[in-house]
TrEMBL record:
Domain called YCII-related: residue spans: 1-115
Protein name: YCII-related domain-containing protein
Family as reported in the entry's similarity comment: Belongs to the YciI family.
PANTHER family for the chain: BLL7171 PROTEIN, BLL7171 PROTEIN-RELATED
One Pfam family recorded for the sequence: YCII
Species of the source: Saccharothrix espanaensis (strain ATCC 51144 / DSM 44229 / JCM 9112 / NBRC 15066 / NRRL 15764)
Gene3D superfamilies: Dimeric alpha+beta barrel
Amino acid sequence: MKYAMLICGDDRQWDALSPAAEQDIMKQVYAWFERWEPLGKIADGGVELQSGATAKTVRAGANGEPLITDGPYLELKEVVGGIVVLECDDVDEAVRIAATWPLAPGVSAVEVRPVVSRD
Protein backbone atom coordinates (compact mmCIF):
# COMPACT_ATOMS: atom_id res chain seq x y z
CA MET A 1 0.00 0.00 0.00
CA LYS A 2 1.13 3.56 -0.64
CA TYR A 3 1.59 6.15 2.10
CA ALA A 4 2.38 9.84 1.69
CA MET A 5 5.03 11.35 3.94
CA LEU A 6 4.35 15.06 4.32
CA ILE A 7 7.47 16.82 5.54
CA CYS A 8 6.35 19.84 7.55
CA GLY A 9 8.24 22.75 9.00
CA ASP A 10 8.79 26.45 9.31
CA ASP A 11 9.99 28.08 6.08
CA ARG A 12 11.64 30.85 8.08
CA GLN A 13 13.90 28.38 9.90
CA TRP A 14 14.88 26.69 6.63
CA ASP A 15 15.50 30.04 4.90
CA ALA A 16 17.72 31.15 7.81
CA LEU A 17 20.13 28.21 7.40
CA SER A 18 23.61 28.91 6.14
CA PRO A 19 24.50 27.30 2.79
CA ALA A 20 26.81 24.88 4.64
CA ALA A 21 24.05 23.85 7.09
CA GLU A 22 21.57 23.39 4.23
CA GLN A 23 24.09 21.26 2.34
CA ASP A 24 24.67 19.11 5.45
CA ILE A 25 20.94 18.52 5.85
CA MET A 26 20.56 17.65 2.18
CA LYS A 27 23.36 15.06 2.56
CA GLN A 28 21.31 13.50 5.36
CA VAL A 29 18.22 13.50 3.14
CA TYR A 30 20.13 11.86 0.25
CA ALA A 31 21.46 9.24 2.68
CA TRP A 32 17.88 8.57 3.81
CA PHE A 33 16.84 7.90 0.20
CA GLU A 34 19.91 5.70 -0.35
CA ARG A 35 18.85 3.64 2.67
CA TRP A 36 15.22 3.05 1.63
CA GLU A 37 15.22 3.04 -2.20
CA PRO A 38 17.13 -0.26 -2.58
CA LEU A 39 14.58 -1.89 -0.24
CA GLY A 40 11.72 -0.85 -2.54
CA LYS A 41 10.14 1.44 0.07
CA ILE A 42 10.17 4.61 -2.05
CA ALA A 43 7.22 4.53 -4.46
CA ASP A 44 7.90 8.06 -5.71
CA GLY A 45 11.17 9.94 -5.25
CA GLY A 46 9.22 12.87 -3.87
CA VAL A 47 9.39 16.59 -4.31
CA GLU A 48 10.79 19.49 -2.33
CA LEU A 49 8.49 22.49 -2.41
CA GLN A 50 9.55 26.11 -2.62
CA SER A 51 8.71 28.42 0.27
CA GLY A 52 5.05 29.00 1.06
CA ALA A 53 5.64 32.63 0.09
CA THR A 54 5.72 31.46 -3.55
CA ALA A 55 2.34 29.70 -3.27
CA LYS A 56 -0.90 30.70 -4.91
CA THR A 57 -4.19 29.52 -3.43
CA VAL A 58 -7.39 28.97 -5.41
CA ARG A 59 -10.69 28.82 -3.54
CA ALA A 60 -14.32 29.58 -4.18
CA GLY A 61 -15.13 33.27 -3.97
CA ALA A 62 -18.40 34.71 -2.68
CA ASN A 63 -20.06 34.26 -6.09
CA GLY A 64 -18.66 30.74 -6.60
CA GLU A 65 -16.02 31.95 -9.06
CA PRO A 66 -12.38 31.04 -8.35
CA LEU A 67 -10.60 33.52 -6.09
CA ILE A 68 -6.80 33.42 -6.34
CA THR A 69 -4.63 34.76 -3.53
CA ASP A 70 -0.91 34.85 -2.85
CA GLY A 71 0.58 32.54 -0.27
CA PRO A 72 -0.90 29.64 1.64
CA TYR A 73 -4.62 29.53 2.43
CA LEU A 74 -3.98 30.21 6.12
CA GLU A 75 -1.17 32.07 7.82
CA LEU A 76 0.65 29.15 9.41
CA LYS A 77 4.08 28.79 10.89
CA GLU A 78 4.23 25.15 9.87
CA VAL A 79 3.70 24.26 6.20
CA VAL A 80 4.27 21.24 3.97
CA GLY A 81 7.73 21.58 2.46
CA GLY A 82 8.02 18.24 0.69
CA ILE A 83 6.25 14.99 -0.14
CA VAL A 84 7.57 11.44 -0.50
CA VAL A 85 5.38 8.45 -1.39
CA LEU A 86 6.29 5.20 0.37
CA GLU A 87 5.38 1.63 -0.54
CA CYS A 88 4.79 -0.27 2.72
CA ASP A 89 2.92 -3.29 4.04
CA ASP A 90 1.00 -1.23 6.62
CA VAL A 91 0.88 2.14 8.35
CA ASP A 92 3.14 0.92 11.16
CA GLU A 93 5.93 0.19 8.69
CA ALA A 94 5.38 3.57 7.00
CA VAL A 95 5.64 5.33 10.37
CA ARG A 96 8.83 3.40 11.26
CA ILE A 97 10.39 4.56 7.97
CA ALA A 98 9.13 8.14 8.38
CA ALA A 99 10.62 8.22 11.88
CA THR A 100 14.08 7.90 10.32
CA TRP A 101 13.69 11.13 8.29
CA PRO A 102 16.28 13.72 9.35
CA LEU A 103 14.49 16.09 11.74
CA ALA A 104 16.74 19.08 11.14
CA PRO A 105 16.09 22.80 11.63
CA GLY A 106 13.11 23.80 9.53
CA VAL A 107 11.57 20.31 9.82
CA SER A 108 9.18 20.06 12.74
CA ALA A 109 7.11 17.01 11.81
CA VAL A 110 6.63 14.23 9.28
CA GLU A 111 2.99 13.30 8.75
CA VAL A 112 2.12 9.87 7.33
CA ARG A 113 -1.15 9.32 5.49
CA PRO A 114 -2.49 6.41 3.45
CA VAL A 115 -2.89 7.23 -0.25
CA VAL A 116 -6.36 6.61 -1.66
CA SER A 117 -6.47 3.99 -4.40
CA ARG A 118 -9.52 4.05 -6.64
CA ASP A 119 -8.68 0.92 -8.64
